[in-house]
Amino acid sequence: MLDLSGKVALVTGASRGIGAAIAKTLAAQGATVVAAARGTNAESSVADIVLRGGKAEAASVDVTNQAAVEAVVSGTVAKHGRIDILVNNAGIARDQLLMRMKRADWDAVIATNLTAAYSCSQAVLRPMIKQRGGRIITISSVVGQMGNAGQVNYAASKAGLIGMAKALAREVASRGITVNVVAPGLIDTDMTRALASGTSETWVQQIPLGRLGTP
Known about the structure:
Layout: E1 8-12, H1 17-28, E2 32-37, H2 43-51, E3 55-60, H3 66-80, E4 85-88, H4 103-130, E5 134-139, H5 143-146, H6 152-172, E6 177-182, H7 190-193, H8 197-205
Parallel strand pairs: 1-2, 1-4, 2-3, 4-5, 5-6
């Protein structure tokens, strides 16, 4: 286990699923976690972390609002003096065949899954460069590599995250900042449970273990 004592981590989409699991794991390893989500959604994750003896605070933020993202980052730095880890995890799905997909559903997925990662990553760069170190970790998806019928918007957003991370890594490696992507397969979360049963079963058939992953 890594010792993250003294490190400050910002995790977006930390209210449930993969994001909540990441926030809790970072806290268990000693990091002070800023759990970001819409409204008060991250408060349950924070309460669980504190109950286990970890350090965490909730941040109410809509990651599609760049000014709000910048405010959370600047507030975190002002309070804690640094920001060491950013986990771009916030994401949504608005599944539909492209022929029937509404422009609003395309825009919402790109804004939440891809553009928000741009906003968050850009916001943490100055403090990370100033402290000459940092870790930016983005949660993509196997769908961004393989594609999946009915998820053109989601696949595009997740593939975009991979390209963005590869380019950004080249920009900031010399400043001691690493940029990496995790591309999970199908994980048992609220989002995947909302998939049509046929879609979920098709994916499970492609998994060698024959079951979904867990957060």
